[in-house]
Design goal:
5 helices; 434 Repressor (Amino-terminal Domain)
Length: 76
Amino acid sequence: MKEQRRNEILVKRIAERLKELRKERNLTQENVRFDLELNIGRIEAAQHSITFSTLGDLCDYYGVTLEEFFRGIHTK
């Protein structure tokens, strides 16, 4: 079976953006875990890639659109 692609730069930038949004809202990882039943710690540490569905849920939770989320994120 073919190995899944993983753009380390993109994964890291998404993780950093998620952490930034969480902290701007004065939320802890525990808040997110309780509210969304999602271990955000592994995502913020760039240990795991996330699905678009999960990213969409997090954007809704943080009150930003996907367009706002990706603004300024580059893959290189």
